[in-house]
Amino acid sequence: MMASSSVGQQKYVRVKPYPEWKVKALEELEELIKKHSVILVFELKGLSASMLHQYRRVLRGHGVVKVFRNKLLLIALRRVYGDSINPDIEKYLSGENGFIFTNENPFDLYRIIVDNSVRRYAKPGDVLQTDIIVPAGNTGINPGPVLSRFSKLKIPTQIRDGKIWVARDTQVAKPGDTVTPELADLLRLINVKPVYESLRVKAALLNAKYIIKGEELAIDVKTYEDMFKQAASWALNLAVNSTLLIPETISILISRAVIEARNLAVNANIPTAESIGLILAKAQSQANALAAVLTNKAPELSK
Which residues in 69-100 are b (16+ Cβ under 10 Å) and which e? Predict the structure, then answer.
């Protein structure tokens, strides 16, 4: 495989062929890109091999999880899509990355990724997303120098039956706190795994043209459901008040028209099969009201 470029009057021609592994990787990438319209880019840094293996298993049937060099992916995208690729893609191809090739909705796939997060021990430097509560009860740890670790973190303890007990539920960290080495060590000691770990998705690339940032994939499904329900309700009200005849409004409009026509007939004293009973009831009510007034003014009339 040869490559060339020109700058002014000078022309560079690559004489040495590309390594066979690179050629095969590019061919595999091109096939994956042609078969899948969506690519999720996720960070590899700090991701354990076991976690990556788990997600390969979880996402089987939903997408293909692969690890390639960023530059190779960019070359393959340009070969498949030409100059139509979004130039901002390069911003998401820094550092070590893995890729998920899929034809599914990226929001649905992200939800699967989040739902399959696993708990792990906290590590020094982790920034916490939730409160950490050390629960009351038997730690199963023998008393000794380790008691100073509890004391340093202001966790009340008692010695019972030769074991260290935590006297009461104790909050040792809150969201936004950074895990210290002392806290990480103690939580591991008492087998508390406060951190949920999953793939850290940087972006979703749609046909190499549109980019959805990773944080934009984390939508609140319930909030959007409520928004759509509210929008549907407003749209129905607008259609009814505008007398727009569509399948969703026709029964409501007919019912309203029947009620308005009947009210008009009653108020205009137009006798019909639907209004005669209401007209007579109205007449009876008016007669009773008149009789009550006359009785107060001329009691002799009630005899």
Answer: ebeebbbbbeebeeeebbeebeebbeeebbbb
